[in-house]
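Tutorial handout. Part one gives the primary structure; part two gives the three-dimensional structure as tokens.
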Amino acid sequence: MTTIQICALIILIAFTGLLVWAGYKMGRSYGKLEADDSQRAEFAKTIRQLKASAQFISTDHRNLARQCRQLRESQAFGSKEQRVLLDIAEHLRVAAETFSAFRTGKKLERDTRFLREQALIMAGLLQVVVQGEGV
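Part two.
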């Protein structure tokens, strides 16, 4: 072999080594990018699932809080309060009849009849609650 052939062989070996090294580096960086992308995709999927779960739990919590509030409100009044409201309604009926006898008592009569109706509505609502507790 001549000197030129030996130099060309050394240069070809060095060039091949550099080419292999550059390919290794590029392949390794590309592999890291794909691994990062797949991890990001997994993390994004997990985050979406956790957000959906948190939203479901939040909605469930709001419903339970609303039901708890309704139960507390329904337990605040019972049959005793219902009887008091019915007594109030009866007294308002008597007052409305009394005011109807006067010429100037028409507005008072209307007001007492309205209040009586409201008391009867509340008593009816309490009756439903009291019956619901008895079941």
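Part three, for discussion. The helical segments are 3-76, 79-100, 106-134. The two ends are 108 Å apart (CA to CA).
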